[in-house]
Design brief:
The chain is α+β, with helices and mostly antiparallel strands and 131 residues long. The protein folds into 2 domains: 53 residues; 65 residues, no CATH class. Helix content is 36%, strand content 21%. It is built from 5 helices and 6 strands, in the order E-E-H-E-E-H-E-H-E-H-H. The strands form 2 sheets. Strands 1, 2, 3 and 4 form a 4-stranded antiparallel beta sheet that branches. A two-stranded parallel ribbon has the order 5-6. A hairpin with a 4-residue loop joins strand 1 and strand 2. The protein is globular, with a radius of gyration of 16 Å. The protein starts with a strand and ends with a helix. The relative contact order is 0.16. The chain binds zinc ion. The site of zinc ion has 7 residues, from loops.
């Protein structure tokens, strides 16, 4: 887990959480990073050493993770198709559970374009992180 201090072209500062520096580059390349204030996609990393979030249940991320793992289904690499199917079921008025898993930046962009509500997780799935 890495937190970066980011800044847009207009000079707005904000924070971004990433599983790794590769995740940051992939999200930036896919145009998924945007300034929360002006929506600029011209996001750069501020010069600063990355910080690693400490482990432990006291950390809000650990609680968020526990809640997601308890209430969402882990669909692994089938995330894109599962998210799409669950979104369509929800539109039909069916009760659906949330899902989490892995998707490529291209898959995430397609989902966003299709109006499927997805969000990046600020942590890696447990089986990966603890592997
Ligand atoms: Zn901005």
């Amino acid at each position: 887990m890495i937190v970066y201090d980011l800044a847009c072209a207009a000079g707005h500062d904000f924070e971004g959480w990433f599983g790794s520096s590769t995740d940051f580059e992939a999200q930036k390349a896919a145009g998924l990073l945007a300034c929360p204030q002006c929506d600029s996609r011209e996001v750069r990393k501020m010069p600063q050493a990355p910080a690693v979030a400490r482990r432990g249940n006291a950390h809000p991320l650990a609680r968020l993770r526990a809640a997601i793992e308890a209430e969402f289904d882990d669909v692994g690499s089938r995330f894109a198709e599962e998210a799409r199917a669950r979104h369509e079921a929800a539109l039909r008025g069916e009760e659906v559970r949330g899902a989490y898993g892995e998707a490529s930046p291209a898959e995430v962009r397609s989902l966003v374009e299709e109006g499927v509500p997805v969000a990046p997780l600020p942590f890696r799935p447990r089986r990966r992180a603890d592997a």
